[in-house]
Q: What sequence folds into this?
């Protein structure tokens, strides 16, 4: 793991370390003297950096989104640390572990992928099994499936988050199919495995999570339609009606038009899958809001994805009666 | 079981049987001669009945929502059967089995209630266990819990439907709590068991399902708040904060203001329970729409609860290619 | 043209003619005697038909959506004509001109298609020209493009309506591109030609206009995405970015999520095309509402597509002052 | 008062009376013989009328919305009365009292208008007083102000209803201005008197209540803007800013865009007046729903204006406990 | 009254006074030297305070929401006053008058409460009278009723605001009941007195106004349901139907689902009370926006509660014609 | 053209120039010394200005929205230029060219107005021609029509923008009327010329664009109704029905209630005009967003009017494959 992380920078330290260039510009002081200003970051936060002398040569070689190796002194300006750069250069690819710059799932990615393949092999419908295995065993897809986040902000917004979400959904799908015997578990598993495949291309998660231009123009639902259609075409004899069923489940999984589903679920499994996907995303969003201290003892941070904050149940149940109650008690 | 049912009436039959009076009025023929017209029904449907002579005495003794024993001849008028009444009287309570007049759950009510009590006993939090058992073992509540439908129209709209829905939710809750270790299964089970207790009073399901006046003025959420609050008060030392938690889960279980929840779920278990309750209701609504033939081979009847019809997956997958496809094949 | 049309049936006529079977069932009279009841139709309307004797053999050979040749007498029942069938048989394909059964565009379909191809040839961007010509010159597509309606109810809901709508949009696109020099007319024309290609498969318009099962599950936007993607793939070297641009214009052409566009227009031409398509559909819907007499002299029929009725401008301007005004005038 | 009213027609009666022609058409019997069919009405209801012989001459002289004098026999057909016409002619204006054909306010119109003028004279701001008196004393306006309904369906939907509504609002305005000393009662009274003046022209209430074509194209807010602007112009020196204030109150009185107010209330008196107007309309709508028996003992008829039914408080409080309660009591 | 208030602090003053600690933290200077930073406030505003030397002992004894007595010098930093603390200690309860720290109603709270009790005694329905007196004469409730604000931000957001709002509503209710004879004034008064009783517990208004955790989980409607239900239970023989009526009025008083009413008003008095409550809140919100100078001469501050600003009528009417008008005048 | 513009100010320059006073206040330094602070602007941006000595006399003579002539030195403070004023005075009207302070249309205003008059003269309906010429040839209106922006923010938000928008709409109207022969081009042209005439008074665009008080109270639709009604009245014999038609088109041109149209388009030309007006505004909003560099190479700035950003088509098509694509290519 890299050292130091932004969150650990301490005054007057002299450091050598690696950071991602998030902003870069040349500015002038009040007296008109130019200097280099950069915003450097890693997965723990970001910090201002300035270089006052002889920065021109270095500055030309790096751009936004590049990784740099810096030699600098930590100063405190307006109560915040700032790097006074003495030297820096473009980092070499082999010096960088991307995981230091983007948060990642706490689970073992390889293990999760094995689990996913095992679930895929458990699909009994031969067409669906062939379809998901064709996609999951495509090495290009596999590499990215193991790295993609499930979203930029809303839920599972870290490397490996998509895989974590999908493996979770497969588990849920199997439980729920036990509960409702009328459901076809093969369709639910297929939905879980393919419903966000378009995110592999909708999002760009090389160095930070953002949307690709194609992702913004088309969205992951439309993008995965094509990926899945191609895979189906390559499977000789894939039944046309089953194809329409799978496509319907994919395009309807957001459950409502305003969330970008051009059709509402009209197949039982599509309806149930929409609930599972939605619930799992929301549970993950709560989990994420819970990790942040909001300043209110009994409440999580405000979750933008959910439009509200959540009660910290244990703390609340363990807390002293609050003012209102105290008062009542006294009277 | 009663005999004959409305759906089995055949032309020229002379029958003796029991029916529910759904409408009753005295009308005049074109020549001004009065006659009695009633709409008689049972759980299989309804039929027009007329009595032309000496109906006055009988007519006085019965009202809408009474059960009657009739002696009549089946005639066919405008291609539909009609009863020509020869005699009728108020039925005696012991002659009537309510189940003949209202549809009921296909599952064994006693068995389901035992399952419910067993789940309740499995709750580990002693306060929550006491609370739900206090309510479920109240004989007045038990009698009605075994009979109540879950709704008038939307889902599980038959005798015992509420119990079927609740037992299903308990099963789901236990599965989902396995999946998400951060969830408190005791709260989920408590939510399942209490979230619709207000329906015991919101609905009137003596002879047909309708809303009581209080049910219309207050709704089941407000009604069950009071039932549950009373039970809590009777449990000495029930913790005030746990009370607020349970109340919050009850009032937020519809998940949205426009569905009558005065608060949105702000506790993890409240959020998850909302999803489970909503999903189970919708799955039941699909199931119910699937039992009705719509005239479109590949589609269920239109579900008012869901605002759409659902694909009959097996029939669709087994069907011949449709016109469009046939055409394509030919070319 | 066929003769007679339903709207021309006169009492006591004995006719021989062709009709589409819209409903078919065997019923019983009050006395229990079975008879055949059918609903027969053509593009001018529909009529009840009954056959009282020896219908069993004939009845077996025909089904809903078949064409029949009937020999019948026109009777009047409850002030409406009814056919008393003497004989009927399945019609032979060569006896039927589909245009007699479905309304069609008043314009010459062949002429419109020539116009369309000529507009396509006028596209200067070589990739876009290849793309649209590949699709428009596909004989399978051409046959259906010349026949498809633009919708089941909303606008251009008749055979050839889609082509009429598209040719109109090409004309509008060229005018508007003249007006706004920043617009790329090639993209607008491509959008016009391809934006409803999915309707060739979404709708079923062999004998009456309805939705195919696939059409209901996927919708024309998703269906045409695949058609267009395949055509692009078959054009070697079709630029990936241009592909994303065309796909974006297709998926965003409904302009709003709730109308089934999974993305809002984010390209200038996509925005303008959305306006043109929407305006042309609405103008056509007004035109169609204007053809129906509503009983209110100064107003069109109520247009479901627009949610209101429209003023008949000429009649209104030519009318006498109405009551309110008359009154004012007198005082 | 006219006699008989539709609601009093009895079988086999021979009557002579006056009715409004609501529909008129010539039809054919099954045997092709033509006859005249009309729908005749008065304020108590409507009835079918037929004339079988020698109706051609009479029929030519009357049209929809004409009043006729008829001589007829009352027959009963399908359990409903029907008029068999022997003779009829166009009624003379002096034979008709419009009040027999349209419901009217139970209050004395002349008395209410005197009250209105007296309130107007009580306005202290000289410009506002001049303005409202100029309008209320305009004889053309006065005649129609005494007759206009406040709406076609929603509230005060009878002759004189508008005046009743306005006089009520003036009373409310004076009470509320006492309560909130910061309010300018003159502005509230002006608003009450002018806010629906456009309805004099928006509605047509000669013989039945409907919308004029101009009313549909412009709406009463726009129509009264012009009436009021003209009156202001004729008052020399009317302050421009006071004019804008009055206009703002008029255009914002519906309180929301979707109810046709192009601006939301941004003046204190505009806000309060909106509440008073809305509340008075809704109270009147409840009152009207309460006059109709719905078949449910404890509930009013469903009010379309309010989207719900209302509890009959007295009946409810006086009622026996309902089934649900009875049950509880027994146990 | 305390002295000085924050708004009166002047440069170079040396002061001794009492403040509420709104924030407290220890920070480091750029050179790493720790200092204490607090935000101190009273009802007139808030001010930054810093203590540079020997603050550790004092700092330990105070927390957020404590009152402190400070000895300090007023300095100006970046054009704003700042306190340089020399000494401070926790204030003693008897040194503090809460009214100095929270804004309060301009009216006499005791006088208003007497008025409220007198209105309660004027209720003729014996059950309703007993009910409201039981609640209003409960000493615990009385103490808090005299202090509670009506809201945190929206309207009457100051100590005693709730009482002011309720007394105002009682006055309005009596006026409006005079106007509409069909209204039961006893129900309206009961509604006014009880509809916000839940706010006594929903809000926390010891030192500043905020929501209690229970208030956030349940809301005042649900909270007051329980308070009122308990009071009813303690009144022997309180009629069950009257209870449902009162409960309905309470739960429906927000008038719309999205404002947290689980039922819409279905009783006449519930409907009218909703209008009165809504109008009084909005009038108060306008009043409050009017007290703030927005920088725009003719307009109030923007009211978040109303989503707009309001015209200052007097200033507008008295103003010079604005530019646009001036211009016109010149031409 | 004035010199220098704010955007051209360079450090240490000594300048003499003209600016608009956007803010003015007297502040105190930390040591209590008063100084003058102003915000000065022109159409290229705004700059802080301070005067430290002897500013009292000057300061009294100028106010917000005045133009001033300043003599100052450009200093750099916190990396931004700031004016250190040495002297300033009120500018004389003849020294100021308003166009230097507000952005203006790139087109020749006189030429556009000639085009507009020529289009007006081309209207064949004599009443409509008289109407628009009466308005357009009114010298007071003409002066302002040549200067008014079309909006404060949304589209064509610069001097002459309204005229540019209207001339564009006339051009579009003529093209579209060619395309749809059922449209009356005279009505479309009249709509284009009059639909925003109210903006001449709704907006205030003397020195910066803002809303007049009347504009906020009434809005341009209501304001132009009066202008147009007056013009019609002055044309003897202007047909009442044509007046209603024109008024309807004006009030419905926003197309939806929530955008302030009290009626939806119910005339064919009103519907089409709404589309043209909406499309032209949106195309202009895109154009304006395209002129701003957003920092994202391939995207325009975010357009508040449209709620999204737009693709820069040329740059996108010419760009290197992005990361996602690069990756794919490599594998």
A:
């Amino acid at each position: 793991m890299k050292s130091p992380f932004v969150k650990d920078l301490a005054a007057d330290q002299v450091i050598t370390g690696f950071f991602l260039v998030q902003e870069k510009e040349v500015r002038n002081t009040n007296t008109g003297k130019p200097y280099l200003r950069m915003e450097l970051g890693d997965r723990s936060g970001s910090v201002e950096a300035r270089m006052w002398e002889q920065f021109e040569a270095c500055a030309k070689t790096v751009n936004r989104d590049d990784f740099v190796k810096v030699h600098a002194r930590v100063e405190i300006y307006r109560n915040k640390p700032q790097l006074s750069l003495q030297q820096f250069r473009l980092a070499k690819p082999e010096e960088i572990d991307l995981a230091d710059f983007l948060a990642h799932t706490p689970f073992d990615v390889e293990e999760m992928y094995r689990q996913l393949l095992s679930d895929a092999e458990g699909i009994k419908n031969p067409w669906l099994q062939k379809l998901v295995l064709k996609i999951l065993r495509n090495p290009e897809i596999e590499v990215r499936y193991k790295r993609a986040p499930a979203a930029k902000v809303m839920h599972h917004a870290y490397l490996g988050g998509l895989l974590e979400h999908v493996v979770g959904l497969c588990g849920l799908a199997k439980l729920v199919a036990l509960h409702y015997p009328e459901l076809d578990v093969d369709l639910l598993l297929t939905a879980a495995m393919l419903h966000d495949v378009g995110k592999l291309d909708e999002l760009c998660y090389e160095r930070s999570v953002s949307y690709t231009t194609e992702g913004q123009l088309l969205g992951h639902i439309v993008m995965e339609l094509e990926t899945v259609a191609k895979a189906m075409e390559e499977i000789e004899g894939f039944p046309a009606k089953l194809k329409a069923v799978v496509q319907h489940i994919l395009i309807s999984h957001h459950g409502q038009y305003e969330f970008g589903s051009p059709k509402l679920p009209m197949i039982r499994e599509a309806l149930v899958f929409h609930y599972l996907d939605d619930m799992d995303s929301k549970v993950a969003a709560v989990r994420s809001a819970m990790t942040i201290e909001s300043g209110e003892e009994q409440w999580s941070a405000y979750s933008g994805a959910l439009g509200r904050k959540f009660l910290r149940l244990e703390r609340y149940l363990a807390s002293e009666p609050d003012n209102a109650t105290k008062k009542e008690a006294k009277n």
